[in-house]
Structures are given as structure tokens and as C-alpha cells.
Amino acid sequence: MVTKKYQSNKVTRLKVSRNVFTEITNKTAGKYAPRKDEYYIRDKKLAGFWIRVAPKGRKVYGCYGKLFGVGKEARVTIGTTELYSANQARKLATKHLQDIKAGIDPKSVAKTEAQKTSSTIESLMEMYLETKIQQHKPAYQHDFEYRLRQNFSALLTKDVRELTTADLIKWWNTKQGTKDPKGSKIVVLRYLSPLLNLAKALDLIDKNVAHSFKQIIADHQESPPRKRHIKKSKMENWILSFLAQAVPHSQYKLKDGSWKTKAVDNYPALWNSNPVIGETQRDYLLFLLLTGKRKDEAAEITWQDLDWDEDLPTITIQPATVKASKQDIIPMSHVVAAMLDFRKNRPDKHEKWVFENKFGSGPITDCRKSLEKICHYTSKYHSIDLPETINLHDLRRTHATMAEETGIDRKDIKRSLSHSIGDVTDRYITRSLEQMRRKREQIEKEILQNNKWYILVNWYGCHQDLMSNWEPDLPDLRPKAGYLEILKLPLEAQDEYRFE
Description:
With 500 residues, the protein is α+β, with helices and mostly antiparallel strands. It has helices spanning 28-31, 86-101, 106-117, 121-131, 138-151, 165-173, 182-201, 209-216, 232-245, 279-291, 295-299, 334-344, 368-375, 392-405, 410-417, 426-448, 451-458; strands at residues 19-22, 39-43, 49-53, 59-66, 73-80, 306-307, 314-317, 328-331, 376-378, 383-385, 480-481, 498-499.
């Protein structure tokens, strides 16, 4: 008798439990990493007390129980593990669970109290900001409150239950100040809507009148998003203007305070006789241009945020600074790495901030005068006069535009502007950052062209042999001809003009 062996193709997959049971202490939240799916850490000591762990890493204390111990389930969210310690959360959970067992739903009580006390726009604003404090950056909260108090003061103390579309029409048409910009009122309406949605959730009102009012003023569109940036055709002259007015490395400064007229190896000096843009403003502006970071994200980088890994040096911008409230890891390109190494080794470096303000009291804040100088400059060899002076955010747009010029995919550009690290393995992170560094070096080359080598040597003290890669363009002193003028010139005359 022959026995046949059969092998089943079915694979039994074990389900991962969504519940972990342990005694919750102040260290518990830090011990458990996020998973693909949400799960709960449940307390062995206090039944119903838990920590909910979301896939993106957010951890929240809460509790649940049944009304009178046998009835409908009541759940209460206490707050994040960053806001409360385990001991604080346990005390609140104990109180809530006692109420639930007595038949009191804490959510219903809170809702009733809110209806009694929070019926004005002002009180709703304070409740909304308190509720959303973990979700929005301080700058957003400041702007939210400032604009409502500044541009909606006439209706701020009005009972939300009495607010009508007619009230909003009167407010819209009433002039406030000499300029009375409608753009600011559009922003106020954008902030007012979530407050009225909160009032609906509290059963204070049935309808959000801000939505109805927006239909009335639908013809008044918001201003289109700004697109101002340094055009590619102007980039070379903008960089040359920057090089002319920014101070070079201190090795070129003479004892009498003047500057040498030659760079290393007798190369021509591109800085003028009286450079006015100092080291910190120079480096901060270049950093924004080469990384595409927002001004606050760059300004608030500290020395602790720099990782000088031998193969892959990086900058970590903390979640509190990033607009998306997520960690942003930036691989350093050649010039950025040389710049930060130079700043790290300055004898007068700030103890905390990479880009300090001129008083040394905090991070850098204002570069408007420097940008004004760069955007409007004339010398013997080149000139630039942009229609408008660009601002710091325009450097971010310029970075994105130049990235697209290199052929980088739009998804990669978006990632370059805000590279968030989520639930991925260390191996994936390393590979991803290496790819991002190569793309950043492409963008750097597109922006700086040959001037990259000049900056490395003459701003940041890199080896003078790098200057062999730099080939200065001799100034073209021929008269300029417009783009269409070439169509009107005979072929033999075209060499007498330069076309831009």
C-alpha cells in the first residue's frame, strides 16, 4: 500500500491583536511603536483606561465604560501623551469612569456646559483654538485670533445664535480703516467657518451662515496665488549681483578693513570694493534658495539638528517648525554642507542657532534690505533690475521652478520642499535620502552653474584646486537686442548684438 502525501497550498495568517495589556506608566507610550493599523494599549490596573496608537504615531489617552455598568458604551478622549503624563491621565480617567458607572456621560455634560457658556463668536474662537492647539502651529493660532479681533471686532461679542447673513453683509460693506482690504475679510471668513461648524456641533445653530454669505459674494474671488520668482533668464545676473555684494571669506579682508581685489590663484574677485551683505544673511539667503525651505523652518535650525554622518550628512527640521507638523529630514548638498561646516567652525558662532539675528538674541528674522540690494544692482559688467523685489518665500518658488527645469518629477519636487519621514525602515530612509541628495545636487548645479565652485572656495574656504572647475564668463559689452529684433536684422549684423 502506497501512501500519498498531500501538501496544502493554504497558508494560515495569524491576526495581530489590536489590544496590548500592560500596566500603563509614564514610560509606556515611549515603549510602543506605531503599526500599520490602529491599536490600543489597555491598562491592567484600571479597567477601561487605554492609550490609542495611530498608524502615524499619534498616541492618545482615553477611557470607556458602560452607563450604569450595563448600558450604552461611553467613550472619552483625554488628550495626547505629549500633553498629559500617565498619572494625570489616570486621575482624569478614574473620574470619568466613576461618572459613567453612575450613568453620567462626560461628553453630554461637556456639551451642555458649552451651550450655556460658549455662545459668542469670541468664546467659540477660544474654545476652537484650545481644542486644536495640538494640530496648528503657534503662528496659525496667532493669525487666527489676530485677524478676527482686528477685522471682525464689531461682531465678535454677538451671540452666534443671532448671527445672520444680513449681519455679514453689513460687516462686508462697512469700511474699516483707510485701505479696508477685502483680502483680509476673505481670510476672516475662512476662519469664521470652522467656528460656526463648531457651533453646529454644539447644537447652538442649525446652519452655517458664513457658507450662505460666501454664495452672495461668489463673484469676489480670492486673489490668485502668487507666482513671483527669479526667472531662469535672470538667474545668472541675480547670482552675480549676490556675489558682488556679499562678503567673501574673511581671509580676503585686509587689516585696514578693505578687501583684496583678487581671489585665490590670482582669479578675479567678483565681490565689489565694499560688500554690504554679511555672512549670516548671505548664508541664510543661499540656504533658502538651495533647499526650498520656508523661512521659519530654516531660521529655527539649531546645531543639534545637524547630523554629520560621514557618508550622508543631514539636517532635521523639527515637527514644531514644519508647516505639516512632521519631521523633515534634508540631505546636505555640496554647497549646503560646506556652508554649515563653515558656520559651525566660526569662532563667533551662536551657541544655539545656525542662523542667528544680528543681536545674537535669537534666530534671524529680516532680510528685506539684502534682497532689495540684490534685485536692483548695476556694475560695469552686469546689472539686474527686477520688476519687483522678491521676498523670502519667492526663493522657495524659485527653487521649485529650477527643480522642474532639471527634469525632476513633480512628486520629487514636492518631496524636496517638505520631505516627511513616516513609518518606514531605516534601510528605506537611507536609500531615499541618498536619492534626494542626488536630486538636490542637480538643483544646486542648475541654480549656481559654474559659480558653485567659486562659492565653495571664496565663501566657505574649500580647497583652491576647485577653482579649476570655474571658468569666468568674460563680460559681453555688445549692445543688447530684444528677442524679436533678431527678425529685423540682416544676418551679417547679428554678431554685433547680444540677445537675451
